[in-house]
Amino acid sequence: MNTKRLLIAAAVTASVVAVLAWAFAPRPQAVELATVQRGLFERTIDEDGKTRVRDRYVVAAPLAGRLERITLREGDRVEAQQVVARLAPTLAPMLDARTLAELRERVGAAEAQVRAAGARAQLAQVRQQQAEDEWQRNQALAQQGFISESRLTSARLAREAALREQAAAAQELETTRHLLAQARAAVRATQPGDSAPGRLFEVRSPIGAQVLRVPQTSEGVVSLGTPLMELGDTADLEIVAELLTSEAVQVQPGMPARIERWGGPQVLEARVKRVEPGAFTKVSALGVEEQRVEVLLELASSPAERAALGDGYRVGVRLVAQSVPDALLVPVSAVFPHPEQPGRMAAFTLRDGRALLRTVEVGGRNGVQAWVRQGLDEAEQVIVYPPPNVHDGVRVQPRKRNQR
User: Fold this and answer.
1) pLDDT, tens digit, for every residue of 351-402?
2) If residue 174 lies in a helix (H) or strand (E), which one and from where to where?
3) Which has the least CB within 10 A, 81, 297, 321, 335?
4) Does 90 have pLDDT greater than 90?
């Protein structure tokens, strides 16, 4: 009987010890897991930008006089040589010796501008022919498989840029000829018999474009050089983004970019045209002084895709600073500084229910993903946001989705 009681007591004691051991045994740490995958890795520089007309023309009063009321309004389309304003010259300023000398000097300056614009137009034509020849050669080489697709794309973009440059140079030449004609007409208006009261001097548009701004709409007396309206082609836009100097040093001409958050249904393609050499100080919304640089981008998408954009529109600019097509990707929260090897990175992987500390080499990071060069394999599971009590060899278990 005593033996039976002893056996029962021993069994109860063993059960209690087992329960206590189970109760005080360390629990596996609940962790979040992610799978190592391959895909496109991109590191971008995001900033707000603003559109602006590439070539803006200010139509100014070629002489002092009384301006008739301008009927054109912002958004109206004007053709080249269309009359945009009329001036009734006043006699006193036109007969003034100093004003007459200034008008004659304007003729000389306009003639010099025509010669310079002609030289630039010839240079642009030569560059366009060179780009066209290079494009034809690259096309033939690409068909034979001797050059890459990226080089062919660069040649195509260079050809398009040369065509635009040639068109802009031709337009500039036409504009300078128009300014020369206006300057000569202003001098002729001062000659005897040409300044009779009531005779109207017609101011014509130098290009076919849209009216961007009309600062002077009402009738009134204007002086020589008073801006009458601004003209520009809204189909020929560029984008200006103000980047921090620490980001601008990573940007190079030709770098691809995407234009987002502009209001349209699709993302527009662009590329960096120029990084301005001088920085400026700008105070942020938090009152912090920042050094920023203007970066100019030209749109690569077709005019039909961006037809709704106008001058001065706000857009989102995403510059692609780094792009790796077949990279090993993990969440950026899965990598952290190595606790035992300063200057190196690490990550926890899951193996047999335990956390395994792995040394990794990170090639780049963005706000979401990290590109791992070495240290991990595809399809492995890594611990995301590892808790402080997780270390090498500790038992872990996946956290349920509804567990917080």
Assistant:
1) 888 899 999 999 998 889 999 999 999 999 999 999 888 888 888 888 765 4
2) helix 149-188
3) 81
4) no
SS3 181: helix
Neighbours of 65 (CB within 10 A): 23
Q: What whole-number distance in Å separates Cα of residue 349 and Cα of residue 36?
A: 10
- Strand-strand pairing, 289-299 and 237-244: antiparallel
Between 73 and 136, the more confident residue is: 73
d(CA 124, CA 121): 5
Q: In the predicted model, what is the mean pLDDT of residues 94-102?
A: 67
Q: Where are the alpha helices (DSSP H) in 73-148?
A: 91-95, 97-143
Alpha-carbon distances, residue 199 vs 69, 91, 350 (angstroms): 16, 11, 90
Give the contacts of 258 (CB within 8 A, at least 6 positions apart).
267, 268, 269, 270, 317, 318, 320
**Mean of the pLDDT values across residues 137-163?**
80
Name the DSSP class of 367: S
Predicted confidence band of residue 41 (pLDDT cuts 50, 70, 90): very high
Statement: the pTM of the whole predicted model exceeds 0.85: no
CA angle 148, 154, 157 (to 5 degrees): 145
Strands (DSSP E) found in 264-353: 268-283, 289-299, 314-331, 336-337, 345-351
Instruction: Quote the longest CA-to-CA distance of the chain.
Output: 146
Give the H or E element holding residue 32. Answer: strand 29-35
Q: How many residues would you count in the chain?
A: 404
Cβ partners under 8 Å of residue 290, min gap 6: 244, 281, 282, 283, 284
Separation CA 44–CA 322 (nearest Å): 7
- Residues 6 or more apart whose CB falls under 8 angstroms from that of 36 comprise 328, 329, 330, 372, 376, 377, 378, 379, 380, 381, 382
Residue 114 pLDDT > 90: no
% the chain with pLDDT above 90: 30
CA distance 99 to 92: 10
Q: And the tokens for 67?
A: 């301006």
